[in-house]
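Thread title: Can someone regenerate the structure for this chain?

I was given the following input by a collaborator and told the matching structure tokens would be attached. They weren't. Posting the sequence so someone can regenerate them.
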Amino acid sequence: PGVRENDIVALSNQMLYEMGSDDVEAINAISGERCSPHPHNFTDRMFRPGDQAFFDILQSYQGYRTCYYRTFNVGTATSEQNDAYIQCREWLDKAIELIKPGVSTDVVAKAWPKAEEFGFESEMQAFGLQFGHGLGLALHERPIISRLVSLENPMEIKTGMVFALETYCPAKDGVSAARIEEEVVVTDQGCKVISLFPADELPIANRY
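Best answer:
Regenerated them for you:
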């Protein structure tokens, strides 16, 4: 509590460059009532006890991009916040299970909820929230996985492709939300998660 979103962004930029990043494209830091609906920026808002907060790391190392979200709670979590995280994780795991050579992107997109099912009027409004994108020398490469584009324009998933898969679930309290993103590489057997920071359960920062 008391640390600001922009403080996290500053510290993250410093750490990434010190560890060898060659380009920090953006750090998204979103907390509290700003979690829902989902913006893609940061402010000088201070973290408060009980906040849900999520962060996106977009940078490159030796020319190759990263893109992954992690959600945390500050001090404690409500049942609504925890439920949102569990649902967000389930949607993500469904997509991970489906990623394998020969599967088309529309099959993966159909595993995610329709826009109306998580509070949006159209797939255009919800674009980028239940989302997958190729990842490599650029941040957003083909194939794109989304109900907006994949249902009518599917592409085949092939061995060696690298994806960032991301899901978003608003909490029933009307302000909190969970956001999780994993990076995966497609193998002959399916796909392997290559993002290392654990995200199976909702982490509590400075629990009290």
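The radius of gyration is 17 Å.
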